[in-house]
Amino acid sequence: MSINSETLVNHMNHEIAAIQPSDILAFNAEIANIPGIVRLTLGEPDFNTPEHVKQAAIESIEADESHYAPSNGTLALRTAAAEFLAAKYDVHYDPASEVIITAGATGGHLYSVDFNP
Question: Could you please report the per-residue DSSP string of 37-98?
């Protein structure tokens, strides 16, 4: 059976129209205009990227550090996080076995049961 491109496009358009926004995006839109609240829904900061962060990103790109990192973060980043926690809170963690880096709490749940880098 042959399907022509018009039939396929019409089917795809119907399927795409049925897609709903994610629950968190819908909730964020619903509360966006409530005065006086601090929204922690999406992790979207209310400030621009600091200049030193921009420069670090540029340097990283120029050094060809533009590939996927390990899923638990690079050792250098985990070490920096452990050093920050030690300096600020006087807590000490082994960056090789007790620190992970995620793109948010949702991604971190995968490690919450069994952390074996």
Answer: ----SS---SSPPPHHHHHHHHHHHHTT--SPPPTT--HHHHHHHHHHHHHHH-----TTTS
What residues contact residue 75 under an 8 Å CB cut-off, 6+ apart? Answer: 95, 96
Structural contact between residues 108 and 100, judged by C-beta atoms closer than 8 angstroms: yes
Query: Integer distance in angstroms from the first to the last C-alpha of the chain?
Result: 49
Q: Name, of 25-29, 66-70, 83-87, the range with top average pLDDT.
A: 83-87
Q: pTM value? A: 0.51
**Which residues are within 8 A (CB) of 73 and not within 5 positions of it... i.e. 6 or more apart?**
81, 99, 100, 101, 102
Distance between CA atoms of residues 106 and 101, nearest Å: 12
